[in-house]
Each structure stands twice: as structure tokens, then as C-alpha cells.
Amino acid sequence: MELLRVKNLKKSYGELVAVDGISFTVEQGEVFALLGPNGAGKTSTIKCILGLRKKDSGEIVLNSSVAYLPEKKELYRSYTVERMIKTAKSYGKNFDEKKAYSLVEEFKLNPSEKVANLSHGMATLLYLAITLAEDVTLYVMDEPTWGLDPLMRNKVLSIMRKLSLDGKAVLYTSHILSEVEKVADRVAIMRKGKIVEMGPLDDIKEKYILVSVPKGESVEGGYFYKETTEEEIYLVEKATNIEGQPASFDAIFEALVKGERK
Amino acid sequence: MRKELYDMRVRTLWMFFILLAIFLSIAPFHKMIYNFLEKESFAVQKYVGKNFIANLKDWKFFIYTQWFGKNFGQLIPIIGLILGFPLFSREFENSTIEFLLVRRTRRDVFSSKFLAATTMLVAIVVFFSFLPWIYSAIFGKTLDLKVCLAFMVHDLTAAFFWMSVSLLFSVVFTEQVKALLSVLGVLGVTTALGFIKPIRFLNTYRYILSADLMRSSIDAMYTISLLIISFTTIFISWKVFEGKDI
After folding, report:
1. Which DSSP helix (H) or strand (E) runs through B106?
2. Is the pLDDT of residue A58 over 70?
3. Which of B177, B106, B95 is nearest to A76 (CA)?
4. Among A65, A68, A201, residue whose Cα is nearest residue A144
5. Helix (H) and strand (E) counts in chain B
6. What residues does A211 pair with on adjacent strands?
7. Pairwise CB contact (< 8 Å): B95 & A66
């Protein structure tokens, strides 16, 4: 079942085109990762989906209830963790207070602690607890694990994985490719407001190879990846007449977002 | 709206205690203030007129001029301003506006903030407009309730007007200090320009501190004009907020 459909979405800020006609869908039961460097248009896309920013054109069809974890995990600094949960309950329509407290306990947060006294990682965990306590079908998370220690990061990733197994969907962005490989079913790689690659992770990895050529030569249609003292390495789509090495997801991502095509 | 009222508690309590302190530094010291001014009447009367000091002996005149016409009256725009300027600019500045807008519609968020600020404004202005009358009743003095009501109408209207102006700047600016300085600028400029006779209507203090109120005479035209401008400003604020990118 399609929970979200984005079709030909465009968003500009004056002369700057932030999102340039992108299209994708998010299905029930999947984790969909939106990847790209800073300024690629990921946050603008998410904010347009949530109605926080007005789209210039395109179509957004949301067939689900949504919970959102923003990029800046800012909560009310003068509140305690407990009051923050109560506020989220009074504002949220599907908020499960018990679940919020159980997550707060799992994340080892003190309910009587002031938000202002929480570290960045702890504030992220509190925001995650509040977001995950919303009983919705689509969770939109912008950099959900940024600033978390490896233990908590793995915990959050397993919660995200469980959400998809429970029939919910997750649309999220991340800079940490290793975690994307762990949890994402499908990814879309954005560069300068456009989606340059999209699909299941394994399919994308299958689609490309790395080809090394002597310096000064190039591979037609290839994306420049990196150079060594003697050769240049290009990312190219697999074809019967080209031989190369399997490409890691890191290499695919780096070459595609560089976008230097020969 | 509970969250909004909770967020305003510190500001409101501060205003409440400051106003209460000012009132209690005036009302119980009526005789003392009068005796002091009478002694200095020769020096003072060239600024305030011959009969002013003598009239201060009268409790009614004293409260109308020293509370409504001076201390409380002068703070009326500030009350509206303090309640209005952080409403949205603080949420923008702290990036907490997203927390609200993904959970509620913009209309809900705007109306709950506006209603909370209006509730606090009405509570403060009404309480401190009636406080002299309550005090008079307790201490066996007489005060004309009609005059208190007349002052209250002017004070409420003016405070509501300045709150609506603050609300507009609060929606436009994403930093609290810009919203505050802008509305203070408008207050300063309109008050200063109001000293020029043909455009004296710009000075809202002339309306708030009007001597006509001592005869319980309300300036209906100015009241209606201020209310129309206030509601227009609130509507513009809503339209700005409705279309604002977060």
C-alpha cells in the first residue's frame, strides 16, 4: 500500500532551486532513505511533504498519519522531560503516553530532568521517544541518529527496523551510509535538488562497477570517483563490454553526489 | 491553549507583581504624597497647573491621575507588547515551531496563541482597572465605578491594539529581539509624531491617559478605529503565518 506519493515536486528559494522535480513513493512496511550531501534538498523535500514549507509545484499525496523528527532536535528548554511528554500528549492526536515513558526509561533519561540540561544526544533520544510514541503509519525522520553513541544508534536502528516489520513505514535521511545499508529497503540519492539514483539497495549495488583507467583517459558515461598516483577510477553502469570491480555503496554514493561525468 | 498559558506564566506573573508593587507604592501613601507635593507646590505648579496639587487631596482625583492617568496608563502599551512579541518569534528562534505545526494545523496554533495572550491581557488589565475600586471599598474610600470602567475600556482597547502590532512583528521576524525592537520603534515613533498637532491621533497615550475619562466619557470613535486596526492587523498576521515557510 502506498503511504506517500511525491510527483514532480519543485521548491525554490528565490534563484536557488532546492528541489527540482523529484518523484518517489513510500510503501507500507518499508524503510525509505533519502540521501545526499548538505544542500541536496532532503530537508526541503521533507518539509514540503509535511506542509511546513509551501511547494512551488508538483503533487504530494499523503495516505497516512505522520510523526516527524526534525533535523534540529529542539524542544522547550525550560520544560522537564515529563512536562515535554505531557505537552506532546496534549498536542498529539495519536500519542501513547505509556510508550513515551517506556522509551524514556529504555533510553535512560530522567523524567524530572530539564530539557536544557540534556546533552545533544539525550535531547535527540527524548525527541525520538516523543516521535515514536505517536501511533501513526509513517515516521518521517531527519537525521535520527546524528550525535548518538553507537549503542543507542543500534537501538534506534532496530526500533526503526521493527516499525517496518509492524507494517509502518519510515522515511528518513542520514549522512551515515553504513547505517543506511543496515536498515533501508530502498534509497534515493539526491544531488542539487534532483534524485540521481533510486531503488532497492541491492539493486543499486548490482547496477554499478568501478573501472580503473590510466590517468588522462576517461570512461564514457562514467562518474569520476577518485584518483591514485597512476590511475583514475570511475563508477559506471554494468554492461557486457566493460570489466571492473564491484562497487561499495560508499563509492556509489560518493561518485554520484560528486556528479563529475565524463 | 494550556501550553501557551504555561509558557506565558513567567511574563504574566512578573507583570502582575510589578503592577501590584506600583499600586501599593501609591495608594496607601495618598496623604504622604499629597503633603509632600503641597510643600513643594510652588515649584511643581508651573508644570501641572495651579489647582492640580490641591485636587490631589481628593482620593478620586488622586487615583484617576496617579494610577490610571500615570503609572498604570503609561504601562498599557508595554503590557500588550510584552504579551505579543514572543508569541511566534520565540518558537521560530528556538526552532520549536516545527513541534507544534506537525501536530496541529496552523489555524489551531495561531488561534491558541492569540487566545492565550488575549486571555492574559484581559485578566491583567481588568484586574488592575478594578483594583483601585476594590481597595477603596476595603479602606472605606469612594471611587466611581463608571470612571474605572471607562478607563478599563480605553486601557483594554489600547493594550489589545499594541498586542496585535506585536503579534504581527512576532510572525514576521524569526528572532525575538527584532520583533521587540520593531514594535518598540513603532511605539516610539507614533508617540513622538503624536506631538505634532495635525497627526496627534497617532499618539495612543493621548487616548489612554485622556482626562475626559474622569467624566466617564469614552472616545467611541477612537476606540472603534483602534479595534478595527487591531483586527485588521491580526488578520494580516494570520495570513503571513499561514503562508510562512518554516
Report:
1. helix B106-138
2. yes
3. B95
4. A68
5. 14, 0
6. A234
7. no
Residue type, A120: H
**Quick check: A81 and A113 in contact, CB under 8 A?**
yes
B-contacting residues of A 21-80, CB under 8 Å? Answer: 47, 50-54, 66-68, 70, 72, 74-77
* Cβ pair B99:A74 closer than 8 A: yes
Residues 6+ apart with CB under 8 A from A48: A9, A11, A19, A54, A55, A60
H or E stretch at A15: none
Q: Are B80 and B160 in contact (CB under 8 A)?
A: yes
Amino acid at B167: L
pLDDT at A140: 96
DSSP state of A72: S
A34-53 confidence digits (pLDDT tens): 999 988 999 999 999 999 99
Q: Are B3 and A90 inside 8 Å of each other by CB? A: yes
For A237, the grid coordinates are: 553502469
For the question of an ipTM over 0.85, the answer is yes
Residue A228 pLDDT grade (very low, low, confident, very high; cuts 50, 70, 90) = confident
Strands A57-62 vs A31-35: parallel, antiparallel or unpaired: unpaired
